[in-house]
Design goal:
The structure holds 2 protein chains of 2 kinds. Chain A is mainly α. Chain A has 4 helices and no strands. Chain A is elongated, with a radius of gyration of 19 Å. A two-stranded antiparallel ribbon of chain B has the order 1-2. Chain B starts with a helix and ends with a helix. Classes of the chains: A mainly alpha, B mainly alpha.
Chain lengths: 112, 533
């Protein structure tokens, strides 16, 4: 079983990547990493050593908490949607600006 | 009747799906029909339950109430439901004969309505997370719908920054679930005072949840997505985003702080300070902008700050002023955005310097816009005056009073600058406008004046709060407004009009995404240091 501290570290790695990466694609990946860390952390909290899957084959004893698993399925679905939409926007941005570097994309301000 | 909240969520979504599938010119009216049904249902629901909100609790699928999906309404959520329905009426009528009249656009717009109504009525934390994330996705699509490069980058900026905020919110939910074994707001609220030995975890959850909400609300260090997004979208969408969707964050703030009541965190001063910084920085940036929609977008930041200053106060009366300002701001800011949208469409430019002679070109529209400007600067007899006075009464004789005064002077200056568009000669012959375009503007102006005149019966009828201590005819109100305008006048002619170097620098301010995220992390760390340690 993974340590909750380790999974929290994944979240921190994602946040670090978000606040340092200058490339749009990398930012999208970092959001995914943060999300993966959050999901792992939640699954970890409902889990314990030797617990079985929450499917009622042999009664209720010794199963892990099913609620985090149910919730995290939803989160994974939402996460994949966010990634898909973000990557679609990346393609559009590349077509319009010819680059996927944040600074070059945001530099030209038509409203000045 | 108990299951009306479910219908409120699903009727707009189902209408949107039919519009998307059928794509016939007549199917457009289905959106209005669905909207009518939603309005009638909400009114009947309100009449049946307005006295006894304890019976509005619904759990789906016969689950235990501690873990099931549940909906619940009270006076606060019902008022937001009515506000949302009203705003969607305005935007649907506005987009009826505009270029935006496309089936895909309507589908996303109606989907957003259902999701937003869901967020208002939801009673469990995970549902809130799902609705928040759905709102982020739909708003991203609506911002990008104009299909220019600027809108795509604004949409991506919005999507990624808000997703990281919502993830922080989810992390907070996880910590709460770990402690309480429940995701139901009511259950957590009732057990909050029992926690002793896991205080640190609870505090950390509080920090993460409010940090995530701050991104959605565009509070001080993490507001940079808002002007980008609201400045480039369609005018109807800008009105909806500024008028309503940012208020979703403030609603969450009220809900989340209410579940932490038992733990008794001293968050009031911190959020007052954050609110003031938001209001002040927003107004400073608004002064430096030259683009009419950017100015309005930065004013949304600043007004959200004022609402936060009100809502974060310990005294319930002042907090009610903040709540009232949410509603009033929704009316006048969407009025300003819709009017600005028509002006921009006619003139073909967004630059304030090039827009001249609007009053002679479009006199009726200018009247509506002047109503909006008077309301936002807080003139007596308009609704902005009422909510700002309610906030002011509670903090009179305090340094906070003068901070609010400072923000008001900045707002007045900025709108004096914007009012320059009315002067000058007629510049162009306008294209014929469909009369239905003006209906939302007319209704919003009337509502602004109505809430400014009949505030006592309105607040008494809906919230049961007596506002009769706010007098319209006190001399001090007029004097205060005069001083504010005068100071704004001086500030405008002495400093802002000459466009000094620091204003140019402010205008060129451009925060990259990684820096914005860095600020978000710094904000979370600061909050952790303030609350946990």
């Amino acid at each position: 079983m993974m340590n909750p501290i380790l999974t929290f570290l994944v979240v921190l790695i994602g946040l670090y990547g978000l606040s340092t990466s200058k490339n749009i694609i990398k930012s999208v990946f970092c959001v995914t990493i943060t999300e993966a860390g959050v999901i792992l952390l939640f699954l970890n909290l409902g889990n314990f050593e030797g617990g079985s899957v929450p499917i009622f084959l042999e009664g209720l004893a010794e199963i892990v908490d099913p609620l985090p698993q149910a919730l995290m399925i939803t989160t994974i679905v939402i996460g994949s949607t966010v990634t898909a939409l973000a990557l679609m926007l990346c393609i559009k941005i590349f077509h319009h600006f010819g680059t996927v570097e944040w600074e070059e994309v945001l530099r030209d301000r038509g409203d000045l | 009747m108990v299951f009306v909240p479910v219908l409120l969520i699903f009727i707009p979504i189902v209408c949107g799906v039919f519009i998307y599938l059928i794509k016939h010119p007549w199917i457009y009216y289905l959106s209005l029909l669905g909207q009518l049904v939603v309005t009638v249902l909400a009114i009947f629901y309100y009449q049946e339950f307005s006295g006894q909100y304890s019976e509005t609790f619904i759990v789906f699928g016969l689950w235990d109430e501690r873990i099931g999906i549940s909906l619940r309404n009270d006076a606060l959520s019902m008022s937001f439901v009515f506000l949302s329905i009203f705003m969607w009426w305005m935007v649907l009528l506005y987009t009826m004969y505009a270029k935006e009249r496309e089936y895909n656009f309507l589908f996303f717009l109606l989907f957003l309505e259902g999701v937003f109504l869901g967020l208002m009525q939801s009673n469990d934390l995970f549902n809130m997370f799902v609705f928040l994330e759905l709102i982020t996705l739909l708003v991203t699509i609506l911002i990008a719908f104009i299909k220019t490069g600027e809108s795509f980058r604004a949409a991506l900026y919005y999507l990624l920054l808000n997703t990281s905020g919502v993830l922080a919110f989810l992390l907070g939910i996880i910590l709460l679930y770990n402690t309480f074994g429940s995701i139901n707001l009511e259950v957590i609220k009732s057990q909050m005072h029992l926690v002793y030995d896991e205080q640190v975890l609870i505090k950390f959850a509080f920090v993460l949840m409010l940090g995530g909400i701050s991104v959605k609300t565009a509070l001080f260090p993490v507001f940079t997505w808002l002007p980008r997004a609201h400045g480039v979208a369609h005018s109807g969408i800008s009105a909806l985003l500024s008028g309503l969707i940012v208020k979703g964050g403030l609603y969450m703030f009220l809900r989340i702080t209410s579940i932490f009541e038992g733990a008794d965190f001293a968050y009031h001063n911190f959020f007052f300070l954050i609110g003031f910084l938001t209001a002040f920085i927003g107004v400073i940036f608004a002064l430096s902008q030259k683009d009419i929609k950017q100015i309005l977008a930065y004013h949304t930041v600043s007004q959200v700050g004022i609402m936060m200053m009100g809502l974060s106060h310990v005294d319930e009366k002042v907090a009610f002023g903040g709540l009232l300002h949410i509603f009033h701001h929704a009316f006048f800011k969407s009025l300003l955005f819709l009017a600005a949208g028509i002006i921009v469409a006619q003139y073909g430019t967004k630059k304030v310097a090039k827009l001249r002679g609007v009053f002679k070109t479009m006199p009726i529209l200018s009247m509506f816009m002047i109503v909006g400007m008077l309301s936002i600067t807080g003139a007596p007899f308009f609704n902005g005056f009422i909510s700002k006075s309610v906030i002011k009464y509670g903090i009179e004789g305090d340094i906070r009073y003068w901070l609010l005064y400072l923000v008001n002077i900045g707002t007045a200056t900025s709108f004096l600058k914007m009012s320059q568009i009315f002067f000058g000669d007629r510049q162009l012959d306008i294209a014929k406008q469909h009369v239905i375009h003006y209906i939302p503007l007319l209704v919003l102006s009337l509502v602004c004046i109505m809430f400014g005149l009949f505030y006592i019966p309105i607040s008494d009828g809906f919230f049961g709060i007596d506002l009769s201590y706010v007098s319209l005819f006190k001399v001090s109100g007029f004097i205060n407004y005069g001083i504010t305008l005068g100071a704004g006048f001086l500030l405008y002619f002495l400093i802002v009009k000459k466009d000094p170097i620091f204003i140019k620098k402010l205008r060129a301010f451009n925060l990259s995404f990684d820096k914005a995220n860095y600020l978000f992390v710094v904000f979370l760390v600061l909050m952790t240091m303030y609350f946990v340690i």
